[in-house]
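Assess this one:
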Amino acid sequence: MKREYPEAPIAGVGAVIVREGPAQVKQVLLIRRGQEPLKGEWSLPGGVVELGETLENAICREVLEETGLVVETVDVVQAFDRISRDAEGRVHYHYVLVDYLCRVVGGSLTCASDALEGRWATADDLDGLTPLTVAVIRKALRMAS
């Protein structure tokens, strides 16, 4: 399945992993993406659903591969399209994404595969993320309260 200039939308998942930080302030895990789209930018862990894989299994696998963390899903935060077009207006990327609120149940943060690095951030530390990502994180933080 080709991701650039696909013939059909590609199903993907994202994880809004929330934990209790210092002074009971909720934190969310961000990763710096190692591959396109959004290579080098901070975002949520996640990736493409493989054939025969459920959405929940996909998010658990992707998080483990990218961060070394074992998570369980809590609830769906939001489903949306992420469509990028090139200068000629052709669809360069088209993902249908489902973001899940997740919590850590094991492992330790060690970035690998598609993630260059990871960090825990508070709701006040989301500068540089896309507006949609910020909105999804804020919604998940409200859900986790």
Notes: The first helix runs from residue 55 to 67.
